[in-house]
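To: structure desk
From: M.T.
Subject: fold request, one chain
Message: Could you run this one when you get a chance? Sequence is below, nothing fancy, just the single chain.
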Amino acid sequence: MYSKYFKITWVHPVLVFLAMVLDGAIALNAAPILYRLPMAASPYLVLLFLLAPTLVGAEGIKNPSDQYLLAFTVGLVYDLYYTGYVGVSMIGFPMMLGLARWVQQFFEHTYFWEMMIFFFVLNCYLVFDYLAFSIINVAQQNIQEFVIFHMFPTVLLNLLLFMLFYSIIEWLYALMRSAEMIDYNVTNQQIGNRMIIKRRADRFKN
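Reply: Done. Structure tokens follow.
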């Protein structure tokens, strides 16, 4: 049942876009807590779910170019609806995906290392985001204020979100990966059976 309907090829993009919507819902409903001036903590579940196949080791069943295209598309939508400046997330999300894929090859797929990779990539994205807005003269904080009042609380918030969603993400992508492997094995068995029947038929003809 799962192998027929529960495909990572369409479930992963849906999860990423749902995570982006959830980011907005969290930011809106928790605004009195997350955005108490001068502090501003932003949820980035969208980035966590973009990196999910890489973090949990499920990327092998999905074309890498599709992941970059998804990151580019989600970044564009994120810019249009959240930041208002097209180009920041549109470029930043694919860059962070590439960074995560490069870093992941040096570490095992364990809870600790997945958290550390997400922590590292998130910090890189926040720095990239700050530099991008500084270049276009939109950033209103100096580097010290940015680190203390935005970067630190944002990282803290997203590490909490990582701990809350990690088990769900790992279970879900493992389930989809198992479904894909079941389909692959069944197909191979069918092909193998057809080849055996054909060889037997040829033998009887002789």
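Reply (cont.): Residues 186-206 have pLDDT under 50 and may be disordered. Let me know if you need anything else for the meeting.
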